[in-house]
């Protein structure tokens, strides 16, 4: 039976777009079988999208020390419909910031803890222009979460 990995992202900059593409490349690696990767911009994700997914990858810029308004909107729309139904589901996070990302990380940690989701990989946090190593970390994040769903 196929599993669904939902990638909820806000990619307003070249750096977040690069990171998104690397995460997708990892999640869709040919060695990972039986996992459908669904991409949803954060402003369009619905509770149904969240409920139908078996795991999540969340991508956002850190704006003024906080997650993007778009990702916050996704959580606002989906939090209560998903509160009990998605408990224990695996997730990973990638963030891009030009300055502090701690507030964004803290907010995402708080919301995902409230949902009862299980972090299965460390956050990938990039400041400034992403390096080759940063892109490899993004690829690994996508592959790790997808492989976890594969079983």
UniProtKB/TrEMBL annotation:
UniProt GO MF annotations: oxidoreductase activity
InterPro entries: Flavoprotein-like_sf, FMN_Rdtase-like_dom
Coiled coil segments of this chain: none
Domain of life, source organism: Bacteria
Limits of the NADPH-dependent FMN reductase-like domain: 50-127
Residue ranges crossing the lipid bilayer per the database entry: none
Pfam families: FMN_red
Protein's name in the database: Flavodoxin
Organism (species): Mycolicibacterium wolinskyi
